[in-house]
Amino acid sequence: MWASASNGVRVVRQSAFYSTPFSYLRFGMSYMANHNNFSGGSSYMPSISSSAHSRKSGRGGSSDSGARDDRRRGRDGGGGRGSKDGRMDKIDALGRLLTRILRHMASQMNLEMRSDGFVRVRDLLRLNMTTFANIRLSSYTVDDIREAVRRDNKQRFSLLEENGELLIRANQGHTVNVVESESLLKPILSADEVSVCVHGTYKKNLESILQSGLKRMKRLHVHFSSGLPTDNEVISGMRRDVNVLIFLDVKKAIQEGMKLYISDNKVILTEGFDGVVPVKFFEKIETWPGRQPIPFREFRSGSQNSVENPTLASVILVV
User: Fold this and answer.
1) Which of 95, 145, 229, 308 has its CA 20 to 30 A from that of 292?
2) What is the pLDDT of residues 61-118, one digit of tens each?
């Protein structure tokens, strides 16, 4: 590991990874993701074939999973675009590959990553990998990296110049355990620092969430947005097609010892307790965009969590 950033360190720009449709990147050594329906889990396994594979996967489970979200991010309009003839833009393809590497694959690629998530750009460009645009990573330049960072509209990257060395990191969304929350993120110490803390999800996930809480799944954190899907200032933190909003009681969470953080691109994150944000910390649940309240108070006080429970039945009907 390298020493932490000292005085004189300059943050060049915060930006991010590209939105990507549900697809896989083609590598020199390709990977195929296995999806567990309704669990939100995913894992990478080596594949002999270099062709791309995909599987239809649902949005079940109690939280959003890591790598699968990155593959589907194109639906949110989060990055660069392909060319008019349908071929993937060179810089867009680079951004998508950086997303996968920096959030999920640094250890597998033997890429040296600091506890704050930063890696050397020159180390990235030495990896023996190929993008979906069929361009080898080693053929890209530092200027291409900067352009990929500049183009993204969700600010998922940060660039850093330290002692003449250019570094890059993902601001959030990691599954690699080398990253430490205290090094990567800024702690939230008071509810006054957060005006809105909301997790966007889908109707089909609500029953599981009310039974088990919000789970971080394969990621290091449960993700919350600092605003609603239509707020212009909200850049990242949830998809814009969600239909259920779960608001966190930030004051109660902090009072009871839950650690909350905020990323450079304004995503609110928490490890919860043992990877779970219990239902008792939900302030309210609403439909979106209708903003109709969904009753769930009995679950906060420990009622029986089962499909037969009248309260849960009413929740499903309201949704």
Assistant:
1) 308
2) 444 445 555 554 443 334 444 544 445 699 999 988 998 999 999 999 999 999 999 9
Q: What is the distance between the alpha carbons of residues 24 and 68, in angstroms, rounded to a whole number?
A: 10
User: Mean pLDDT over residues 266-283, rounded?
Assistant: 96
Measured between alpha carbons, how far is 214 from 197 in angstroms, rounded to an integer?
Answer: 14
Q: Which residue has the tokens 């009995």?
A: 298
Closest C-alpha among 72, 63, 59, 65 to residue 42: 65
Q: How far apart are CA 187 and CA 259, in angstroms?
A: 7
Q: Among 162-166, 282-286, 294-298, which is the least confidently predicted range? A: 294-298
pTM greater than 0.70: no
* Residue listed under structure tokens 């959003």: 64
Here the tokens at position 229 are 């899907």
Strand locations in the chain (E) = 10-15, 31-35, 42-46, 119-120, 157-162, 165-170, 186-188, 198-201, 214-215, 222-225, 244-248, 260-262, 267-270, 276-277, 282-287
- Using alpha carbons, select from 274, 260, 302, 173 the residue that is nearest to residue 215: 274
- Is residue 97 within 8 A of residue 131, CB to CB? The reply is yes
| Look-up of token digits 């990567």 | 184
Quick one: tokens of 121? 């750009």
Closest CA to 118 of 184, 187, 185: 184
